[in-house]
Amino acid sequence: MSLVEIDGARLDVESAGAGPDLVLLHSLLSDRSAFDRVRETLAGSFRLHLVNLPGYGNSSPAGATLDAYADRLAAGFSALKLGPGTAVLGNGFGGFVALAFAIRHGEKFGPLVIADSLAAFPEAAKAPFRIMAAKVRAESMASVLDAAIRRMFPETFIAAHPAIVAERKAALAKADPECFAQACLALAEVDFRPSLAKIRNRTLVMAGALDQTTPAALARELAAAIPGAKFEEIPGCGHCPQIEKPAEFVAAVRGVLR
């Protein structure tokens, strides 16, 4: 683990493996341990940098907007001396951070992989984020764990993998409640659509066919709006392909980064 100091703030990054640099950004509903099932395999091909986003692990809060997260990541790139060939992969909330990073600091890195993220949420899909933010502020992280799991995984996966469900709940319970609430509200407000044409990074957008949080049809629209981006749908998968379909996830990543 490396604690990168940035203007008095901390960015918690763990590096492993050898090869071209690949930065991994986790979802709102997890921490970097969400990549544990693909870490060893990817580390055989890449130098991984697994980031705990602000509010997770030992990373300091960054602010209430996705732009603030992207700027913190940009400062982390400079501190870690990551070059413009570095690839960035974000899942869920991490994908939204990666999109903001590409829009604001796209010259700092190379390929972009977005797993289960969107340009913007439909109005009806914003309410759950506001509800989760209110519950966490009024109660605790424990109050949203069941709802979070149902946003992460299809019901069939939940029923078949109780140990993974327990593991993911335990990881999310450690998140900073106020950072989590602010991130929820940032997702409810985000709209990248006016800026996506600015992205020049080689981009893959992937989405689980069963993802109800960031539906594949809307992820396909995101890919269509980024110049030259490719889209890949993962059958039988929900919001976290690196957990549900690790082999397919790794194959997609290697395919675009090869």
- The total strand number stands at 8
Radius of gyration: 16 Å
| Main sheet specs | 8 strands, mixed
End-to-end span in angstroms? 27 Å
**Portion in helices:** 40-55%
Question: Could you say which overall geometry the principal axes of the C-alpha atoms support?
Answer: globular
Which strand order does the major sheet show? 1-2-4-3-5-6-7-8
**Percent of residues in beta strands:** 15-25%
Please provide the ordered H/E string of secondary-structure elements: EEEHEHEHEHHHHHEHEHH
Poorly predicted parts = none
- State the helix count: 11
Mean pLDDT: 96
Query: Structural class of the secondary elements?
Result: alpha/beta
Compact summary:
This protein is of the alpha/beta class. It contains 11 helices and 8 strands.
What keywords describe this structure?
single chain, 258 residues, 8 strands, globular
List the helices and strands and how they pair.
Elements lengths: L1 E5 L2 E9 L3 E5 L10 H8 L3 E6 L13 H15 L6 E5 L1 H13 L6 E4 L7 H16 L6 H8 L2 H6 L1 H11 L4 H13 L13 E6 L7 H10 L4 E5 L6 H4 L1 H12 L1
Parallel strand pairs: 3-4, 3-5, 5-6, 6-7, 7-8
Antiparallel strand pairs: 1-2, 2-4
Helix pairs in contact: 1-11, 2-3, 4-8, 5-7
How would you describe what is shown here?
The protein contains eleven helices and eight strands. It is of the alpha/beta class and 258 residues long. An eight-stranded mixed beta sheet has the order 1-2-4-3-5-6-7-8, with helices on both faces. Helix 3 links the parallel strand 5 and strand 6. Helix 2 (66-80) crosses helix 3, helix 4 runs antiparallel to helix 8 and helix 5 (145-152) crosses helix 7 (162-172). The mean pLDDT is 96.
